[in-house]
């Protein structure tokens, strides 16, 4: 099965995701009283195994926040940041001076909320595109290597991953991470059809 | 019918559950009006359930208009997205207290805002509030401890650094002082040896000639006097004897100051003679292995080695109860190795540090001052060995042809 997006599909997705990111950035800015910038410079499609390697495989420790999307279209939305960077980021946001060597409970919760805001923006974009009925789970925080994090409930390597690169900056601090939508092939096919329909609609209007 | 019965049973049960829950529950409809306000909320907000019901939630909490709290509720109602609001990022948004009567301790809150879909038209939102004050306190305590620990670790490492620097400084000072003391000791020994030498010459030249002249004169007088006055003759004989003794004593003193053996015969023969004499007196079996080239060593080195040998042999005679003593003297082009070993009772570590060890210190000083190594190896029951290594300055001339004949 071919899992390549056309240039037009890719550009459309990047644009609608960036609109969502603008809203998330505004929400985060109010929250931390600092200007927060969020952007999605690229959207790519790939197999799950490949995505785990692209994200750094087993060699890289990451923090992740996952929300599960169920309905006509099902996907796990996973936000992934390098562990060390996410710690620095959340400490900056909380204004803490003590550098503990581990993620404390409060830091973990703050990170989960930040992830929740970003993921809700991404999920909102998708559900807006797909116009269906969905249920969305609460965010769950996890630490580990990329392979562990990408390991879903099922061990189906055929799953398709839509990988959004995400750039995040607060004050002068910059962090770069990813949002992965892990979906099964059936969902993926419906997803591409919906994008096509959205594009056709947009072009007509 | 069955469903209705079920509803009847579940309804009151749900109410009871809401009353008992140890977390706050608020349910709002699409116009943000309160449909449920549980007991916990009343207890911690000071707003009774009856007051709260059917009023817009932002009227109850006016400070929350336009905040993330409101945005999250709208998101849940319109987009069906759940949200979490942490106390740390949102600075505990709801005015909830352990005791609302005195608004002192605002609860640390963890809030979850969850969409609730009744039908495709009717949407609700559940706001769930937990009190995380205990966890917050725990973490604050942990953070304080971590800060303290960090501070004390830093202080400790600073202290360690200072100590190390101080130690290095002390080390340097000790090395400097030791070098100065060694230099001083060497100087003092050289001066002492020079003075002894000078004194010995004066004793020999001046006192020696005076004593000899006096003895010649007294001897002449005694001969002239003959037996005429026996009392005077007796006195003169006593004077003669005393003068002889004085001359002998002068010789012994000169010998001690500037070993005649050494000046007259050179190191190897002086060592052979001195050791031989001591062996005779003490009944030692003597082992000598002395390099003949050492006969012509520079005077200061010969003297240093001879003094070491004298001291080592004296110690052996006094304390060792040995039956055999060995002297070994070897020459390399640039080094001298000298060993005096006995097979006596040996010394304990303690004994080596007692006051009588001035002698040992003296030996060590002589050698170290000339840039050499001195070692005293002694094991109780296994004898004592004095080991010396002395560097030979280039051109110190140990080749027999290049050195002047020893003084006679």
TrEMBL record, chain A:
The record's InterPro entries line, in alphabetical order, gives: CheC-like_sf (IPR028976), CheZ_family_phosphatases (IPR050992)
A single GO BP annotation from the record?
Answer: chemotaxis
- Do you know which SUPFAM superfamilies this protein is assigned to? CheC-like
Where are the annotated coiled coils located? none
Name the keywords, alphabetized.
Answer: Chemotaxis, Hydrolase
Q: What is its EC number?
A: 3.-.-.-
Q: What class of enzyme is it?
A: hydrolase
Gene Ontology molecular-function annotations: hydrolase activity
Protein's name in the database: CheY-P phosphatase CheC
**Species of provenance:** Amantichitinum ursilacus
Q: Which gene encodes it?
A: cheC_3
From TrEMBL, chain B:
Q: What is its EC number?
A: 2.7.13.3
Q: Name one GO cellular component term.
A: membrane
Q: Which residues cross the membrane?
A: none
Q: Where is the Histidine kinase domain?
A: 198-394
Enzyme class comes to: transferase
Q: Which domain of life is it from?
A: Bacteria
List, alphabetically, the InterPro entries matched.
HATPase_C_sf (IPR036890), HATPase_dom (IPR003594), His_kinase_dom (IPR005467), PAS (IPR000014), PAS-like_dom_sf (IPR035965), PAS_4 (IPR013656), Sensor_HK_TwoCompSys (IPR050482), Sig_transdc_His_kin_sub3_dim/P (IPR011712)
Q: Which UniProt keywords apply?
A: Kinase, Transferase, Two-component regulatory system
Q: Which SUPFAM superfamilies has this protein been placed in?
A: ATPase domain of HSP90 chaperone/DNA topoisomerase II/histidine kinase (SSF55874), PYP-like sensor domain (PAS domain) (SSF55785)
Entry coiled-coil feature ranges: none
GO: which molecular function terms? phosphorelay sensor kinase activity; protein dimerization activity
- CDD domains according to UniProt: HATPase_UhpB-NarQ-NarX-like, PAS
- Pfam families in alphabetical order: HATPase_c, HisKA_3, PAS_4
Asked whether the keyword Electron transport is assigned, the reply is no
Q: Record's PANTHER family?
A: NITRATE/NITRITE SENSOR PROTEIN NARX-RELATED
Q: Can you say what this protein is called?
A: Sensor histidine kinase ComP
Naturally occurring in which organism (per UniProt): Amantichitinum ursilacus
Q: Which gene encodes it?
A: comP
């Amino acid at each position: 099965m071919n899992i390549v997006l056309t240039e037009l599909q890719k550009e459309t997705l990047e644009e609608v995701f960036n609109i969502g990111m603008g809203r998330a950035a505004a929400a985060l800015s109010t929250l931390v009283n600092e200007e927060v910038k969020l952007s999605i410079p690229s959207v790519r499609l790939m197999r799950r195994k490949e995505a785990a390697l692209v994200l750094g495989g087993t060699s890289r420790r990451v923090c992740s926040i996952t929300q599960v999307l169920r309905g006509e279209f099902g996907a796990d939305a996973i936000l992934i940041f390098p562990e060390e960077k996410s710690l620095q980021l959340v400490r900056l946001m909380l204004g803490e001076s003590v550098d503990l060597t581990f993620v404390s409970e409060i830091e973990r919760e703050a990170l989960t909320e930040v992830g929740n805001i970003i993921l809700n923006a991404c999920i909102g974009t998708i559900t807006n595109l797909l116009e269906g009925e969905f249920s969305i789970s609460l965010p769950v925080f996890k630490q580990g290597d990329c392979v562990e994090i990408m390991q879903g409930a099922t061990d189906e390597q055929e799953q398709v991953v839509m990988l959004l690169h995400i750039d995040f900056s607060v004050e002068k601090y910059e962090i770069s991470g990813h949002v992965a939508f892990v979906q099964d092939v059936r969902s993926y096919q419906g997803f591409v059809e919906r994008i096509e329909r959205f594009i056709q609609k947009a072009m007509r209007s | 019918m069955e469903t209705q019965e079920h509803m009847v049973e579940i309804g009151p049960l749900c109410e009871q559950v809401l009353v008992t829950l140890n977390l706050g529950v608020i349910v709002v409809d699409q116009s943000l009006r309160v449909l449920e306000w549980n007991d916990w909320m009343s207890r911690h907000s000071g707003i009774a359930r009856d007051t709260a019901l059917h009023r817009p939630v932002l009227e109850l909490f006016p400070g929350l208009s336009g905040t993330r709290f409101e945005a999250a509720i709208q998101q849940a109602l319109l987009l069906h997205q759940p949200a979490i609001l942490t106390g740390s990022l949102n600075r505990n948004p709801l005015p909830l207290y352990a005791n609302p009567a005195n608004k002192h301790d605002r609860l640390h809150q963890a809030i979850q805002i969850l969409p609730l879909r009744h039908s495709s038209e009717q949407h609700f939102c559940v706001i769930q509030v937990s009190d995380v004050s205990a966890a917050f306190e725990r973490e604050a305590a942990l953070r304080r401890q971590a800060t303290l620990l960090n501070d004390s670790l830093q202080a400790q490492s600073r202290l360690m650094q200072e100590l190390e620097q101080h130690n290095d400084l002390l080390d340097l000072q000790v090395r400097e002082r030791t070098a100065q003391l060694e230099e001083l000791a060497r100087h003092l020994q050289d001066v002492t040896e020079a003075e002894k030498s000078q004194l010995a010459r004066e004793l020999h030249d001046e006192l020696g000639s005076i004593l000899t002249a006096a003895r010649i004169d007294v001897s002449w007088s005694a001969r002239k006097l003959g037996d005429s006055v026996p009392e005077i003759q007796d006195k003169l004989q006593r004077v003669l004897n005393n003068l002889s003794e004085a001359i002998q004593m002068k010789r012994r003193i000169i010998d001690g100051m500037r070993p005649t053996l050494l000046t007259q015969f050179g190191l190897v023969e002086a060592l052979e003679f001195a050791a031989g004499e001591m062996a005779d007196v003490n009944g030692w079996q003597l082992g000598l292995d002395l390099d003949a080239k050492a006969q012509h060593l520079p005077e200061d080195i010969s003297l240093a080695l001879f003094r070491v040998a004298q001291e080592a042999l004296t110690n052996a005679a006094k304390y060792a109860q040995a039956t055999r003593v060995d002297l070994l003297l070897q020459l390399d082009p640039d080094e001298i190795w000298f060993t005096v070993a006995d097979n006596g009772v040996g010394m304990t570590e303690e004994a080596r540090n007692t006051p009588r060890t001035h002698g040992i210190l003296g030996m060590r000083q002589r050698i170290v001052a000339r840039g050499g190594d001195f070692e005293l190896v002694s094991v109780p029951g296994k004898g004592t060995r004095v080991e010396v290594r002395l560097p030979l300055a280039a051109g110190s001339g140990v080749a027999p042809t290049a050195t002047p004949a020893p003084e006679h």
